[in-house]
Amino acid sequence: MFSMNTDMPGMQTGGLSVAVTGSGGSGAVTAGLILLEAAAKKGLYGLMMRSAGPQIRGGESASLLRFGDAPVACMSDHFDLLVGLDWRNAGRFAQEIPLDASSVILADPAVGSVPESFSASGARVRELAFKERAARVNGGRLNMVAVGTAGALCGLPLETIDAAVHKILADKGTVVVESAITCVALGYELAALPKVPAPGAPEESAARWRISGNEACGLGALRGGVRFVAAYPITPASDMLEWLAPRLEGLGGSLLQAEDELAAINMIVGASYGGIPALTATSGPGLSLMLEGLGLAVASETPVVVVNVTRGGPSTGIPTKSEQSDLNIALYGMHGEAPHLVLAPLDVRDCVLTTQWAVRLAEHLQTAAIVLSDQSLGQTRAVADPPAEFELSLQRLIERSPARDYRRYAATEEGVSAMTIPGVAHGMYTADGLEHDERGIPSSLAADHRRQLEKRQQKIDAFDYGAYWAEIRGDGDLCLICWGSSSGAVFEAANRLAANGVALRVIALRLLAPLRCEALRQALAGAKQVWVVEQNHSGQLYHYLRAHDVLSVETHSLAKPGPIPLRPGEIAKTVAEQR
Amino acid sequence: MTDLLSGDICSVAEFLVHALEMETESAERYRELADNMEVHNNPEVAALFRRLAVEGDAHAEQVKRRAGMYELPDIAPWEFKWTSPDAPESAAMDDVHYLMGRRQALELALHNEIRGQQFYTQVSGRSLDAKVQRIAKEMAREEGVHVSMLREWLAREADKLQAPLEDLDPPNMPE
Amino acid sequence: MTTVAVKAKDYKSGIKPIWCPGCGHFAVLAAITRALAYLERPKEQVALISGIGCSSRLPAYVDSYGFHGLHGRALPLATGLKVARPDLTVLVAGGDGDGFSIGGNHFLHACRRNIDLTYIAMDNRVYGMTKGQASPTTAPDWSASKMTPHGTGVRRFQPAAIALSAGATFIARGYSGDPKGLSRMLVEAIRHPGFSFLHVLSPCLTFRPEQRAWKAEAHAFTEETSDEPVEAARRLHADDGLGLGVVYAERLPVWPPRHESTASLAMLEEEFSA
User: Fold this and answer.
1) Are the beta carbons of C5 and B33 separated by less than 8 Å?
2) In this complex, do C16 and B39 lie within 8 Å of one another by their Cβ atoms?
3) Is the dihedral of CA A31, A37, A39, A45 positive or negative?
4) Considering the domain boundaries, does residue B137 fall inside one?
5) What whole-number distance in Å separates Cα of residue A290 and Cα of residue A310?
6) What span, in angstroms and rounded, lies between the C-alpha atoms of A228 and A221?
7) Of the candidates C49, C109, C261, which has its C-beta nearest A250's C-beta?
8) Domain with B56 in it: what CATH number?
9) What is the CATH number of domain C16-272?
10) What is the mean pLDDT of chain C?
11) At the N or C end, where does chain C have fewer CB atoms within 10 A?
């Protein structure tokens, strides 16, 4: 671990991890947001997650940040700096804020003593008079003093922190902003460190985006053409819906708050039937309710996208924490045989591309796509490069001049049949969940069922998904396979192992269904040992891959359930131990 | 005899639109019944209703030709001047059963034709327009021909055994 | 050279209904085709949405766009379609089980929203498609179903009264045995801007042959249509469930209000960068 500030301006690629805890309205979240914004303005990449007690307001709260000069895609193994605004019930965050002997804890004895669960780590405690400094300022807040001190220790220039305060507190009024600035300056002084020069204005940092995973999924949806959303609020998906509502309207679309998830999924099927790309967002319990509706979309070949911001399961589970335990329901949840798409964004930034891709695929293949995001992506704010541009042109195949004998569900070679939409003359048909013949007339005949089953399977299987199906990096005997949000920690673990001379490759799956078995086998060719890494208890991806018979060599499962994220160190250690 | 007319029909055009609606609806209804009997595997009665539908179509065509030179008024479905729920010649849907035999179907048809005839007769009797009286009377006479025909067919059914109206199989659950 | 009956034929798809001979739904189908013919709605601008049940089979028999969706979910399906495509004429068809049991929640909220839809609920007080179970509108003492051999013992759901409480702005009751009244009410319902609830008594002669008696028992409401909810509630609660007519009609803002696009995607994306 490097010593802070003394080797500024360049930060090591490992980056810096800072946690701020407080309770009862002490502003730990605001403090975190300001530090993140300051880091962004300094030209750094970053991530910020939040953790909280169960209270609606006034509960205990923690901001967990990491920033550095390379893209940050996961939390580190431990935190370098812990700032305690107060220590009430802070012990609940102990597992999420691992410290070691090299960590530093900033604490004000006037607000309590550092809990055993933190001090037991051997971290050094620096006692600072935050409260006293705050009291010197009219309307002064303790958390702003702490921001100043922490910022100084992180090597952030005062000017940058000030700019961040202006941005984050913009709508609180000048009085609040002024007193905050004053407190920050006092806190900065408290650190007793040499001043860090203000940065020049690097162009790249100005172009960098501040975006959360939920916002990124929302943007991906809009980029993909979604103009109708119907949804029911659920943690942790609700802020995606809140972000989408005014913006959809601004684009001439609509967001409808449904009475329940059963209504939501059926509403988007209806809108999509009318020709408007449609989407909803939910979490595990909502996805369970939506399964019948998803089956209707698949059977009637109506494009829809459901973004599942996975939380701890099963049942009501752990609503505010993350897990990757909804792969099974996404793959297997529908009754009957209902081939469909399952995708998973690999990091916050990737939520844009993956969701956009999901929408375009669903539209083109006339099927249901489930996007497996999760709470660790959805509610994490990233400072990242602008999202990648989506390179493919995938359109809904619409029949505008149907022939006399137009058949909505004609069995074509690729499996996709052109659809008429209401308003197209002579193209009338009744979409149905019932099995049907090529014209859409309900049928229970074996030949019709077989034909439609094959059609719906064929269109999914025969499609060329191109390069987006996975991110593959490195080469070597050892292979790590992962999916969705755990990719960040896996890539970082792989980098560490590689730095220690281990030859390895990583396959991070973005497309989970259909499984690109051939491509996967090719990507695995030559590997002698495989680890399937995921954040769930039973190894859902591991078993899925086994079932598809793509793992022909010695394979291990590293499956750890939420709520604590997978850490690069534990992955690297586990893998290294078993080589 | 029930009063089948709920108001006076004052012009030939108005009369013809009523007649056309009656004949069309009657034929459509028989066609619907024929289809329905076919779907429920009662081919005998299906064939009978199909024949009646064809007769009805022919009669409707006749009315159309008669109406050729007239500008027919637009009448909303609920504004037709018959007191019966449906047009007088349309078979009531709830008098049918998938197990019904030819006899019952003919009785149904006969009842409708008689009612149709009565309607035209009443129109003829009540209208103050001489032309309407004449045309209505003609049509009543034509209906009379159908009535006789149906009576004849019915008479032929007299000796045949009718299947009991009971299906020994339990109902099915299609969905 | 045409009458409504002639024009109405054109709206039939030609697919033969599987309803039992004598089913009340035939009359509802006829009323729908007549209403569409009378209103001269182009077929491709009409969408008929249904759930599951005998009455939900109706969309296939009309030559328009349609969606035969999930049990109880016709209203959300129709809602999504109408909000995304406000230019269409959207009719919703279903039965008493589909609409008031599994679909009950959606019924409440659809009434509340006042979207411009016409909901035709064909009520035969039984689950016909699944062989004759009691439905929410079945009388508590009807004991002919094996599933509830002593009757349900539960009071009847009152669709029209609930529609009124839930905020529907057009409430009418029709009867398949009164095709004139049904046609007129249906035209009014479709024309009404907002959520129109047309409760249709439509007998199931297979499982409820005694419903033939409705012919004699159904009666027209004597009063004129009310625009006063309290008065309408009084009439509905005083009614024996067989009163026919447009009970309540009021003009309230149709939801959602129309809006135009005011922004572009490029503008939205600017909020993410410094």
Assistant:
1) no
2) yes
3) positive
4) yes
5) 14
6) 10
7) C261
8) 1.20.1260.10
9) 3.40.50.970
10) 95
11) N
Taking each continuous run of H as one helix and of E as one strand, the counts in chain A are 19, 21
Residue of B25, B38, B57, B64 to mutate when probing chain C, most C C-beta within 10 A: B25
Task: Report the distance separating Cα A532 and Cα A482, nearest Å.
Answer: 6
DSSP A253-280: -EEEE-SSHHHHHHHHHHHHHTT--EEE
Q: Where are the alpha helices (DSSP H) in chain C?
A: 4-9, 25-39, 74-84, 96-100, 104-113, 159-166, 179-191, 214-217, 229-238, 265-269
Q: Do domains A210-384 and A467-577 have the same CATH topology?
A: yes
Question: Residue B172 falls within a domain, yes or no?
Answer: no
A positions 264-293 inside 8 Å of C (CB): 264, 266-276, 278, 292-293
Query: Superfamily assignment of A16-206 in CATH?
Result: Pyruvate-ferredoxin oxidoreductase, PFOR, domain III (3.40.920.10)
Q: What is the CA radius of gyration of chain A?
A: 26
Instruction: Tell which CATH classification among 3.40.630.30, 3.40.50.920, 3.40.50.300, 2.60.120.1440 matches the domain A467-577.
Output: 3.40.50.920
Chains near A (3 or more Cβ pairs under 8 Å): C
Write down the residue that tokens 């809990």 correspond to. Answer: A115
A388 at interface of C, judged by CB pairs closer than 8 A: no
Within 8 A by CB and 6+ apart from B159, the residues are none
Mutate: best of C65, C114, C255, partner A, most A CBs <10 A: C65
Q: Do A423 and C256 touch (CB under 8 A)?
A: no
Domain that holds residue B31: 12-73+83-157
- Under a CB-based contact definition with an 8 Å cutoff, are residues A310 and A372 in contact? yes
Count the domains in chain B.
1
Residue B167 covered by a domain: no
Q: Label the pairing between strands A61-68 and A341-343.
A: unpaired
Q: How many CB atoms lie within 10 A of CB C194?
A: 22
Q: C-alpha dihedral over A188, A189, A195, A201, to 10 degrees?
A: 30
The distance of A41 to chain C (nearest Cα, Å) reads 8
ipTM exceeds 0.90: yes
Task: Look at C76 and A273 and tell me if their CB atoms are within 8 Å.
Answer: no
Give residue limits of the domains in chain A. Answer: 16-206, 210-384, 397-463, 467-577
Interface contact B39, partner C, CB < 8 A: yes
In a domain, B55, yes or no: yes
What distance in Å separates residue C262's CA from the closest CA in chain B?
44
Using a CB-CB distance cutoff of 8 angstroms, which residues of chain C are in contact with residue A274? 47, 80-81, 84-85, 88
Q: Which site among B80, B93, B104, B172 would you substitute to test the C interface, given the most C Cβ atoms closer than 10 Å to its Cβ?
A: B93
Span A210-384: which CATH code? 3.40.50.970
Predicted model pTM: 0.93
> CA-CA distances (angstroms) from residue C184 to A210, C181, C190, C244?
59, 5, 10, 12
Closest alpha carbon within chain A to C47: A422
E strand or H helix at C152: none
Report helix, strand or coil for C137: coil
Using CA atoms, how far apart are residues C232 and C253, in angstroms rounded to an integer?
A: 20
**Cβ–Cβ under 8 Å, residues A459 and A451:** no
What sign results for the dihedral spanned by CA atoms A117, A121, A127, A129?
negative
Please give the structure tokens belonging to residue C148: 């509830």
Closest-CA distance of chain A to residue C239, Å: 30
- Chain C neighbors of B35, CB-CB under 8 A: 16-17
Residue whose tokens read 């059926």:
A266
How confident is the prediction along chain B (175 residues), in pLDDT tens digits per residue?
689 999 999 899 999 999 999 999 999 999 999 999 999 999 999 999 999 999 999 999 999 998 888 998 999 999 999 999 999 999 887 789 888 889 999 999 999 999 999 999 999 999 999 999 999 999 999 999 999 999 999 998 866 666 566 777 777 777 7
Q: Which of A215, A223, A259 sits opposite C105 (nearest CB)?
A: A259
